[in-house]
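BUG: 3D viewer hangs when loading the predicted structure for this chain

Environment: internal workstation, default settings.
Expected: structure renders.
Actual: progress bar stalls at 90%.

Input used:
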Amino acid sequence: MATIKSYNMVSTGSITIPVDLATSTPDVVYEDNIITGSVTLAATVSVVAGGTPTKGQKIRIYWDATVAPATFDVNVLGTNLPTNAMKGGKFVIECLYDGTAWVVDTRAIILEADSVVTTAIADNNVTNDKLADMTRGTIKVGGAANAPTDLDSKTSGQILVGDGTDVASVAVSGDATLASSGALTIAASAATPAKVSDSVNQRQFTVSLEGDAAGKLGVIKYPMCLPNGGSCTVNGIYGTVKVAPATDTFSVVVKNNSSAVMTGGQIDVTTALALGNIVVATPSANNTFTNSGSPVYITLETSKTTAEACEVDITICYTITA
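Structure tokens produced before the viewer hung:
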């Protein structure tokens, strides 16, 4: 029957297990050793080898101690024991000296129900079979105090949304709804001008004006095609010269639906211009239109002192705002 050397667990410092006769005298070197007792660690405790080991030498340590680890470790010949296992587990630690260092095998540790630590589990070894059953259609998320929680995510037509704290299963609402088939339905009239880019809302139209006769000069109105309740803003007026006047300026004054002159909205075709020249005006006021149930019009008022051959294409650029 093998003899076992017994050691009392300490709260701080070290426990020395002799590995050669010079260190053990007058005692002997024991292959089997046991550590017992109940302590609260005040610092890291190390189990160390006393003396010089021989290649192939073995030491077995039977752990029978109860330890409150707090934030401290128990280190056996260079290897930290699993912290939770030290609370009161009973296990055997096999130690082999390979000629350079001690190889410490803790695989034989008998762990209690709350003693498994991450380092004791090999990667990719927690299979679905090892997990607790979950209600069909739930997913596992972090809950209160970071505890794993099973979230019911199967409600028909709902999606998972984070709110900055938790994840919740909610219905899609507002301008769209989602069916359980994945079909998304956008509500009627949901894609309003305010919800699309300005480039999509931009419109334009062009009219040709002449000043070669008195009957062609004066007030001309053009409808702004807006739906009931719709609005737009004129943000650019361009005059492209087709025939430049020879005697005096051909002017086009642009007005809104109330016949108010648009600030900065006048096009003047002077005698200095030539075919293809473009005159630019950028309205800054009195340039909005709203259809409140009645037709709305933009007014172009032309004038020229001398009726003569002259012609300009007026392009009105506007943006739908509602």
